[in-house]
Amino acid sequence: MTNLVHPHHAAEAITRLTQAWEFLSGEQRAFVCLNGNTDALQFTEFSFFMPLNTLDTTRHGGVGVLMERADAETVAANMFAIPVLQLRAPDLQDSCSEVCNVLAACVAAQFSDESLVRVGIPKRANAAEYTAVADNSEARAVYQSRSDKTSLFVVLYDRLRDLPVESP
Hey, what domains does the chain have and what are their CATH numbers? Predict the structure, then answer.
């Protein structure tokens, strides 16, 4: 993958993502912009995507957030101020949707310099939907945050062709 994001914009996104994650999760974890190989991008239990389009509809793509269960539980417990053992599936769904909203906002401005960007609604992807999006997109920037146990990815991508699963 060729990183298509200017280093200055990547540095801004890293700062915003790091601050957003601390706000959402209560943990301090840094993000880095990965240049090169995207092999680490795999379907996770909490894979979300949010479609992005320019207002003139000349560019289509989105932001993917790939989150493992431990990170989803950390965020939900922090957001709802309840112990992890008391979390329910809807709590995880709601908190991860909000994570997608917030983290997508940190990188959406990189999507287009020429046009305003229209942001869609976050959607949790099943394995087939994840594969469809991954196979029909090109990563422009990949941001990763690692803890001792997990890796969290935020991917800004261009869509290569229309997919019904990504309707804004």
Answer: 7-159 (3.40.1550.10)
Distance from C-alpha of 35 to C-alpha of 32, rounded to nearest angstrom: 9
CA nearest 153: which of 8, 11, 17? 17
Is the separation of the CB atoms in 84 and 73 below 8 Å? Answer: yes
pTM over 0.85: yes
Q: How many CB atoms lie within 10 A of CB 118?
A: 15
Q: Got the DSSP string for 69-91?
A: HHHHHHHHHHHHT--GGG--HHH
Q: Residue 114 is encoded by which pair of tokens? A: 């020429």
Lowest mean pLDDT among 7-16, 65-74, 89-98: 7-16
Residue 140 carries which side chain, given as an amino acid letter?
R
Tokens 């993000």 belong to: 31
Across 51-61, average pLDDT: 83
Average pLDDT for 19-30: 95
- Written as six digits, the tokens of 20 are 């957003």
> In sequence order, which residues have a C-beta less than 8 Å from that of residue 120 and are 6 or more positions away?
50, 51, 52, 53, 62, 166, 167, 168
Give the long-range contacts of residues 4-8, CB within 8 A, separation 24 or more. Answer: 4/140, 4/141, 5/33, 5/110, 5/140, 5/141, 5/156
